[in-house]
UniProtKB/TrEMBL annotation:
Belongs to the aminoglycoside phosphotransferase family. Transmembrane segments: none annotated. Residues 41-266 form the Aminoglycoside phosphotransferase domain. Pfam families: APH. PANTHER family: 3'-PHOSPHOTRANSFERASE, PUTATIVE-RELATED, AMINOGLYCOSIDE PHOSPHOTRANSFERASE-RELATED-RELATED. NCBIfam families: APH_3p, APH_3p_II. This is Aminoglycoside 3'-phosphotransferase. Keywords: Antibiotic resistance, ATP-binding, Kinase, Nucleotide-binding, Transferase.
Length: 273
């Protein structure tokens, strides 16, 4: 939840960025490209629209040690093979040390932007979607986001200066990344209740259509992790968007009495991403 858009390549007047893959030119001719500003991603995200043609999305990310887009493509393919609702990859390309991903749009609206739905319905859809995702076989999932791996990556991101201290949650503003990393190590829980977790399960990354769950987006952090990884971020998002009174119904619907210390820990861990 603590990432920002790389706004490179913003098109003028709805045209495709000059850097866009030439192999896509014919297929995407006539589409208007609009840079998305909702959500926070190290990739630039464009919404492509054209009259009487399906809406599409393009993600593009510069190469680097912390790039996630190639990994997200692998995760989307893995999810699709298991029948999990998510964007379908139409094409993947590389140009000038950048990775490009062209995907279908999921119908409906994200759960943070669904004023036509009441809070109870949103909480129930989120709980049901995460519970079903968490039922996938962890032994079948090749993406390791267990604590040893994530804490190591948090340290590397901190040392690379990628942790935005001005974007910390309100209760941590004024702290340094190194102070929070020390707290992270002190708060590390013993053991993990492992599941296939989305990794950034806030309401903007869960979509619904006609009152039903329609799919997950921004799946670049999917992997085997403690269920509280998702419950912490979903709970924070529900409290922020719907109000804290909907936390208890959300956890009850999910079917777990949450470990409050683990919720705090995983929200703290998220500050590094």
């Amino acid at each position: 939840m603590h990432r920002h858009h790389d706004r490179f390549g913003q098109p003028e007047s709805g045209r495709a960025p000059l850097e866009a893959p030439l192999s896509w030119k014919a297929e995407l001719s006539g589409y208007d490209w609009t840079l998305q500003t909702i959500g926070r991603s190290e990739a630039a995200v464009f919404r492509l629209t054209a009259e009487e043609r399906p809406t599409l999305f393009v993600k593009v990310e510069a190469d680097g040690p912390f790039a996630e887009l190639t990994g997200e493509a692998a995760r989307l393919r893995w999810l699709a093979e298991r029948g999990v609702l998510c964007p379908t990859i139409l094409s993947q390309a590389r140009t000038n040390d950048r990775t490009w991903l062209l995907v279908t749009a999921i119908p409906g609206r994200d759960l943070a932007s669904s004023p036509h739905m009441d809070a109870e319905e949103i909480a129930e859809i989120a709980a049901d979607a995460l519970r079903e995702l968490h039922r996938l076989d962890v032994t079948d999932c090749p993406f390791d986001h267990t604590l040893d791996q994530r804490i190591d990556l948090a340290r590397l991101r901190m040392e690379a200066g990628l942790v935005d201290e001005e974007d910390f949650d309100a209760e941590r503003l004024g702290s340094t990344a190194r102070q929070l990393f020390h707290e992270l190590l002190e708060r590390r829980p013993s053991g993990e209740r492992l599941a296939v977790a989305h990794g950034d399960a806030c309401l903007p990354n869960l979509l619904a259509d006609a009152g039903r769950f329609a799919g997950f987006v921004d799946c670049g952090r999917l992997g085997v992790a403690d269920v509280h990884q998702d419950l912490a971020l979903a709970g924070w998002s529900i409290s922020h968007n719907l109000g804290s009174r909907w936390l208890e119904p959300f956890f009850k619907r999910y079917g777990l009495e949450p470990d409050m210390d683990r919720l705090t820990f995983y929200r703290l861990l998220d500050e590094f991403f």
